[in-house]
């Protein structure tokens, strides 16, 4: 079976060998790398799609994300949007086989990620080092920051932070184990010459050394950069990303006209008085309420929020995204906001360096799937996309400061092992494996059958297996006739608050809700499905499971609402009923599995909403068919108990089937008898029969002229048992 890892190994190996063949000092733009990969391995894309038709990350995008791992290993350097394999990268390519090459790169990223604060400390130290006129031993720098020196030296070849070249071996040499080319050695040599620490007599064409008397001693390290607690400098806020969309009077996207020609992005502000950059939300709202009084309240609020974002929240260095159909363009903000008047009216503008005007990205092919929500909504003019900053930095061939949302492989449902079958008292895992295969095809499945067949127990056990035992990754809810969309997905809920002051103006609490004097505020509260879906979206490599017990007891059309559509079309987006998506739209992530249970003795499966039945697969658990039919017998054998109970259950279900009014869904499941308390003696079994089994059968036969005790009583059934089966003894 071909795995995602196998094909990822293949594309990374081809790309690495292409880069290794380039002349010394030469790099390739990613677009050219991908063209050469396709030429060298023309079956790669078709093999990927054939093996993983539902995987949303294309193999081309996978290569971009894997380049992050190669960069953190120090094997790949990206400068000027050019990819270059470093000396450590070429050495690793020769040392490791294809699978180990990728595995080691991923391991390197894991080490860097776990020690990120320490690497940030290294970057700060190196930034201060050139001013000292000294170099530093790699061992001393690594020990000071608690890092592995063998990892630190290659890592520096990837990002090359300021001062990277001043980190050298014990005797001031450029370590041979880095495997640098003559061009790389000369580059290092020139930097040491520039900083006045190059030891020319001790160096040669193949060796580069620094002056030994210019080394920074370990005792000087602690004074090089002030401790974080000693500085009052505020941490710079993270880089943000923004969708900015604009059209001209004919409806054409401005990216193909004004924005491209002048290197800007803009917003129409024909009625807006002059506002300075940095204006507060209150100042902007006050001006907009007066200048745009003809607009409704919600439109004024939206307009004010957009103006405030453009003026005060955007910063130089932020990423700007805009679209023209499915063509997507990325740029970097390079200047402050300004208000410009022209023939078409006043606009707010910011200068932008657009990066891919000649090669726009395809919205559906290159960008994260979740970005299709906001980018595919033409009503959005300006909205924050900061959660995707890491993904956009990858597309810009930059080392991402934030983790990409699609950086890991898609979640995979694990096969059903024998241990799970043993836990559920099944002979083998074949039935459970069929459930897993159905969920891989469509991540919704319902277990249906009569009472006592273990539907809920099976659903919970399967949920724990699929989620790897992570309790936070699955949740159980139970439907009932009063259950609603507001309970299941999201809805307004009352909350007691302090009474309003006597002036009647109300008080605004920390949740943004206003109490108007009633002592009650209403909050939009997320239900179990939305909370679990949001968690699944944030962690796409993990499986999440929602178990819905008694799914057919709820009014499904009322409970699911617009989510009906998403159950069948997991890749699509919808606008939410209460507008909490703020125009960004919502979808059910592919790594969210829904398991339902359905008691068919209460309501026939045929009575379930046809649209809902089409969206789920169904697996039956019935007393007359495996894996349920022999479950009680196996359980009794495992517990070393008499088989009489299993024989009695078989006799009971046979009589139910023989009765003219006996429906197959009226038969009794084994779960009633799979409890130790039932097997403490004849009295315990008789008590169970009298208080649970016979009342259930009496309910089934309501209105029938049947003597329930004579027909289904223990004494009557025992007469049919083989005479060589001894009765149960008291415990």
Write a compact overview of the structure shown.
This protein is of the alpha/beta class.
Would you mind describing this structure in some detail?
With 731 residues, this protein is an alpha/beta fold. It has 29 helices and 22 strands. Helix 1 runs antiparallel to helix 3, helix 1 (4-20) crosses helix 4 and helix 4 (59-72) packs across helix 6 (98-114).
User: What is the quaternary state of this protein?
Assistant: single chain
Reported for the largest beta sheet, the result is:
8 strands, mixed
How large is the radius of gyration?
34 Å
Separation of the first and last Cα atoms: 52 Å
Helical proportion? 25-40%
From the spread of the alpha carbons, the general shape counts as globular
Key terms:
8-stranded mixed sheet; 22 strands; 38% helix; 731 residues; 29 helices; alpha/beta; 5-stranded parallel sheet
Q: Which helices and strands, and how do they pair?
A:
Layout: H1 4-20, E1 28-29, H2 30-40, H3 44-51, H4 59-72, E2 76-79, E3 82-85, H5 87-95, H6 98-114, H7 116-128, E4 136-137, H8 138-145, H9 149-157, E5 167-168, H10 182-194, H11 218-221, E6 241-244, H12 258-262, E7 264-268, H13 281-291, H14 297-313, E8 319-324, E9 327-333, E10 338-340, E11 347-354, E12 361-362, H15 372-375, E13 382-384, H16 389-395, H17 418-423, H18 430-441, E14 444-449, H19 455-466, E15 474-478, H20 485-488, E16 490-496, E17 507-508, E18 514-515, E19 520-526, H21 528-538, E20 544-549, H22 556-560, H23 563-568, E21 592-599, H24 610-615, E22 617-620, H25 631-638, H26 644-658, H27 682-700, H28 708-712, H29 714-718
Parallel strand pairs: 4-5, 6-8, 14-21, 14-22, 15-20, 20-21
Antiparallel strand pairs: 1-3, 2-3, 6-13, 7-11, 8-9, 9-11, 9-12, 10-11, 16-19, 17-18
Helix pairs in contact: 1-2, 1-3, 1-4, 1-6, 4-6, 13-14
